[in-house]
Amino acid sequence: MNIAKPESVAVFCLTPGGVRLARRLLSHVPLTCFTSDKLVEPGFLPFDGSFVNTVHKAFKQYSALVVIGAIGLTVRVIAPLVNDKMSDPAVVVIDERGQHAISLLSGHVGGANKLTRILAGILGADPVITTATDVNDMAALDTLATQLDAEMQDFRHAVKVVNQLLVSQQKVGLWWDAPFLAESERCDTQGFVPVKCLDALPQLDALVCVTLRDRLPLIADNLLPFPVYKLVPRRVVAGIGCRRATPLQTLVELLQQQLAENHFDFLALRAIGSVSIKKDEPALHQLARCWRVPFELFSVGELSRHEQRFPASDFVRQTVGVGSVSQPVAWLMSDGKLVGNTLRQRGVTITLGVSY
């Protein structure tokens, strides 16, 4: 998902009025502002050759693009670049007088709708948002996934079906597993039907379940007469220690085994981590790419401050400089919320933690 953050927003100014407007935005939020050579002033960068060339480069480098100018020009410039709403950056267009801020591309997953509201609020502009759920004052499944940093099997299809049901005023239930009840209060759930218990469901046309579990009996056993979608927040971290040149397949199999033994959905993984001496371990980098998660590294000093909490190995200490790797790594990544037992097989140790 490509969520727009203020520090990763590129703004393009084509006229003196656009520069003045960008300067107003810069006084409130951190932005990277581009303009033509003749309009460059302190705090602005010149176009890289041309406006079109700069936009094309920024489309791949920034999570959001804001064009202060005509919407038609913006559409023509970005048209060859548009690929997928799950990965395209947010694109917002603001007219030169600051009267309208228009969410043009990646409204939900990319965060363009949210960014439009923020920028419109700063400028006193009218936010123009056309996505069906927003127009009908409904929440959206992809927005909820963004707010929770959550994944889902066949996400594109689920978003299409659930959002269509919502705007058609069908009954879409929303159930929160116990650890996420507190998080439900900060999320936009307007339009969903609250479900407190899976054993006593109201009449529904679909159900969304927010959980880390790999199996919910009603879903797994296909007992319900309507579609059920599991939305899985990415909250599980894995501290990993391994011998040099451990094969990727070994790490994949053992991580899957450890997740399954603790009844976590594979989509729940948020990050893997290890000791800094493993920064060049190919299989760990490959594992992170396979799961599409960050690979975090911790120094021996950071791990040493917590190793007294865990059993130590003289072999590991001689090899990496600290008596335990996976447990203190998982401890640090999860703020001390470890789960289950540490896996020790085939020269690999894996400890899981959960960061709610």
Automatic annotation (TrEMBL):
SUPFAM superfamilies tied to this protein: CbiG N-terminal domain-like, CobE/GbiG C-terminal domain-like
Lineage: superkingdom: Bacteria
Cobalamin synthesis G N-terminal domain span: 54-134
InterPro entries: CbiG_hydrolase, CbiG_mid, CbiG_N, CobE/GbiG_C, CobE/GbiG_C_sf, GbiG_N_sf
Domain Cobalamin biosynthesis central region: 140-219
Coiled coil: none
Domain CobE/GbiG C-terminal: 236-352
Full protein name: Cobalamin synthesis G family protein
